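SEQUENCE-TO-STRUCTURE ENTRY
===========================

Subject: a protein chain together with a token-level encoding of how that chain folds.

Sequence line: the amino acid chain in single-letter code, read from start to end.

Question of interest: how does this chain fold, as expressed in backbone structure tokens?
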Amino acid sequence: MKKICFFLALCFSLQAGAQVLLEDSIATSTGYRHFLFYVPASYTPGTAAPLVINMHGLGSNDTEQLYYSNFMPIADTAGFLMVLPQGNQVMGTTYWNAGFGGPDDDVSFISNLIDTLRLGYNIDSNRIYATGMSNGGYMSYYLACHLPARIAAIASVTGSIVPGGTALCTPGRAVPVMQFHGTADATVPYLGGSLNIPVDSLIRFWVGNNHCDTTPVVTEVPDVVTSDGSTATHYVYSGGDNGSTVEFYKINGGEHTWPGSPFTIGVTNQDVAASAEIWRFFSQYSLTEFLGVPQTVKGQRHQPAYPNPAISSIQIAAPLQGNATLSDMAGRVLLQSASQQLDVSRLPKGIYLLQYQSGGTRIAEKIVKE
């Protein structure tokens, strides 16, 4: 009956032509496991769509993670499918077995869930990604280690790997990784604890696994929201195998929270929209190739647009080839012009992405509007 309801909901969603949130479960060795499945209005069966697996934290659930991470507007724009699986319970608490906890084989559960969804949806098997909060972030790393043939890239928010876990992590390939972590995180301590290795050690492990450059490009994120009690520093380790990178957002003073979330719990950084950054990161990668989404060009070879922050207009310094576009952090194109000067006076304050081509190089820059 559950399968019938699932596919009836699928047929209805395709006919209605609107985004739909489906609810179902699949059988596992320890009973039925619940999940939510978000289908954007742009989905069409004739086109294979990426899939984002979005996992909640310890003691939370799929519904809370749906609204806390708030990926829905991004999925609507970018056209990816999203599944939010429910962790099983041990002693009344929902959890993911990411190398610690109860007896559940959550790697098999996630793999079987992917297979179930592929029965009814045209999912691009080379573009399946995993992300999660806290224990869900741990599970994202665990999938990178133990399901590397199916997961193209992962992103963890306040998650980590258990002590000794890296010795058992042998993905056999470069796995692009993004990490967000607050220096004042008391739940998963930045400097490490009984259930997590230090964040700096975590980053070094994946930089080594991917054979990235060990010296990162470091950028201080503009402190647009000065009242949030935190700032952010962005580290990018590039040059890895098959175009892989490791990106790390260090939230200075941040607590055990999801940056950019509409729900403020403790010190939540609002200078970085984690969900938008995660999709920007994922969209570069597939299992078979580096897709080459434009990245910020740094160094002396490129003169950035100015002024930044901007109040009324942005001047692109480099000769422009074709149109320049300015998008919000959800990927919506707000301005498009062949002129090197863009009028941003009517845009609200915030962070935007400027993209253009110059001298045969595709360039993307973050622009702050004041």
